[in-house]
Amino acid sequence: MPVAASPGSSGKRDGVGHDRAGSHSKAVNALRRGAPSQGLRILLVEDSDGDADLCRAYLEEGFGSRAKIVRVTRLRDVQEALDQHDMDVVLLDLGLPDSMGVQSVVAVRRMAADVPIVVLTGNRDAQLGVQVIQEHAQDYCAKQDLNPALLTQSIRHAIERHRLQTQYARLLESSPDGIVVLDQDNKTLFANQTACEMLGLNPLRCVGTTLPMEFAAPKSDEIVLPNRQVAEIRSVPVDWNKSPSMLYSYRDITARKQAESRLQQMVQYDELTGLANRNFFFDCLGRLVGGIRREGGMLAMLFMDLDRFKYINDTMGHDAGDELLRQVGKRLSNSVRQGDLLARLGGDEFALILNHIAGPEQAAHVAQKLLQNLEKPLAVHGSKVSVGMSIGIATYPQCGNNVQDIYRAADTAMYRAKEQGKNQFQFFADHMQHRVEERIRIEQAVRRVAADDAFWLAYQPQVRARDGMPVGVEALLRWPDHAPPVFTPAEFIPVAEDIGLINGIGRNVLHSAATMAAQTGRLLGLPLRVAVNVSMRQLYAEHLYSEIETVLNATGLPPDRLEVELTESSVMGDPVRAQRTLAAIRTLGVSVAIDDFGTGYSSMNYLRRLPVDVLKIDRSFVAEIGRNPETEAILHSQVHLARALGLNVVAEGVETAEQWDFLVGAGCDCLQGYYVCRPDTQQRITDWLCGSGSRGS
Length: 697
Ligand code: C2E
Ligand code: CA
Ligand code: CA
Hints:
Elements: H1 23-33, E1 40-45, H2 49-63, E2 67-72, H3 78-85, E3 89-93, E4 95-96, E5 99-100, H4 102-111, E6 117-121, H5 130-136, E7 139-142, H6 148-174, E8 178-182, E9 188-191, H7 193-199, H8 213-216, E10 222-224, E11 230-240, E12 243-252, H9 254-268, H10 278-295, E13 299-306, H11 309-316, H12 318-334, E14 341-346, E15 349-354, H13 360-373, E16 378-380, E17 383-385, E18 389-396, H14 403-419, E19 425-427, H15 433-451, E20 456-464, E21 470-478, H16 489-498, H17 502-524, E22 529-533, H18 536-539, H19 544-555, E23 562-567, H20 568-573, H21 575-587, E24 591-597, H22 604-609, E25 614-617, H23 619-622, H24 629-644, E26 648-651, H25 657-666, E27 670-671, H26 682-691
Parallel strand pairs: 1-2, 1-3, 3-6, 6-7, 18-19, 21-22, 22-23, 23-24, 24-25, 25-26, 26-27
Antiparallel strand pairs: 4-5, 8-9, 8-12, 10-11, 11-12, 13-15, 13-18, 14-15, 16-17, 20-21, 20-27
Helix pairs in contact: 1-6, 2-6, 11-12, 15-16, 17-19
The chain binds ligand C2E and calcium ion (2 copies).
């Protein structure tokens, strides 16, 4: 570090580089060449004639005729002499009639800022502040020791030292860093221009004053400057005019800090919502858990998952999905305290840490508030959207030993909340663990079976109510027997939907079912219709229409032998879009059935406008025939309604003769259920159809 060499530690350095023009440099050149054109101009400030004569004699002896000596006897004449003669060096006696001691040095230094000074000290000046002389003058010699060699050497030394000091000062001035040198009492010995600007110091007055503590002894090595910029401080001990001092450098690191904080923002925060991101969240959770382990207390993690997000994302598009997440983030932020950490873990999952809670009821209270705040619909791209949220709560240290345990527990509790009907919160309880493990098992198994294309289709006949004649079959997806444990469609289909595999599976189902209907129809010589269940995911994916068209072409199945079944709730997801897709499908000649009718919440209005052909009355109604007169009344009105809308009615889940009779009496067109025939393999159902084992009539 070049600036560390203080002007005071220069020593003799003959032959060091060249200077710019200046009185001292003229003097240096004069000394070097030994043949000055203008000589060496020396201002002798000395009131005693005897001492002055002695000096004159010594100087002439030392420098010969080159020395041009101007003498003044009082301090007040110094300025004029300097102005007139452009001096190379000042030789200064400390005891003047109008000034004494240190005062004289300081005064001359002020007048001759750019001229080297050699101080002549007498006996009584021995106790004078040597340090002050060192600070302001370049050299000094005691009068009693004076001789030609000493005086000449002192003057040469002073000139050389002054040259170096100027050079260093220039170096320090030109440094892009702020540089301040402080003495042991924190008084400023030097401050360059940059330092004055950065620290807000007055360049003319700062020398000799105390530097504010925050700059001289900062708590960290980074400080915020008065102008809000950030500086990095370093300090090194230096020797300044032979006394131990401290050099401080201040580097402006504002730009670097800004870049760092942008980076940190990216690393720690979620870009979409501005909330903490997953990594940051788990870092914090780890730290807080550590704190509680050491000091006691309790914290809660709330794991939140939006209830209708997938549907909104699928139906309204990703932009709307993003906007929704942003708004949910804002709503959630409004319900948490300053010290709580709210994060988006990814997708539609959010999480919250409540640190230092008094008890679980406090977490319940917050969960309640979060749910309430989401009750009012959000405005997303001009339309009002309602989302619910399921919250799982786990507390530490009650729910495990580490971050993983807490996370798993909160996640498990969240699933429990979903199962319990969504839009609510649940605390973790031990027994929940195995449900989650089960879900993970199903997920892995579904992936495997789908990859092997090992699902198969069972078929269940539908018969005409009037005469029991088989008119069609419903294709029902089955888990392969060779992949135990065997899961029911109610178990594995929602999982396949969640993990995005249903579209591929559904495409295969369509193809196999159409193939079966075409083959069996030909074989039996009767127009057999096949009903295929279509998931909401398929309905809102782009290619349902073209997939159906492709299947019809590939299998040769006449379009009026294919029926797609969609549940009431999937159609109501986005009625406008569903309507468009269904209408398109119907133009192919394919018919559309509303499955599980009566279990959803479709309004009459929508239903009236939906392009459908068939209503399938849900088996939960059928099961109550003979047991619940109210349900029977509903069944009657459902059939009425369908009639009024010109729709066919299929009743499913018919298990008894009583149910059969009731439904026939109520006016259903077709019946389906164990009472007629259980779902079975293609082969056995084909056999059944051949025997036409209907029992209705
Ligand atoms: P769903 O469309 O309502 O299918 C009728 C369900 O009722 C079938 O259950 C069938 O086996 C059952 N069932 C038929 N008759 C009776 C009866 O008399 N009594 C009783 N208790 N149940 C009867 P399964 O096969 O377990 O299918 C359950 C659900 O899985 C289906 O309900 C449907 O929503 C879904 N599903 C089945 N296959 C597919 C498929 O290929 N794609 C899609 N997306 N979903 C499917
Ligand atoms: Ca169905
Ligand atoms: Ca159904």
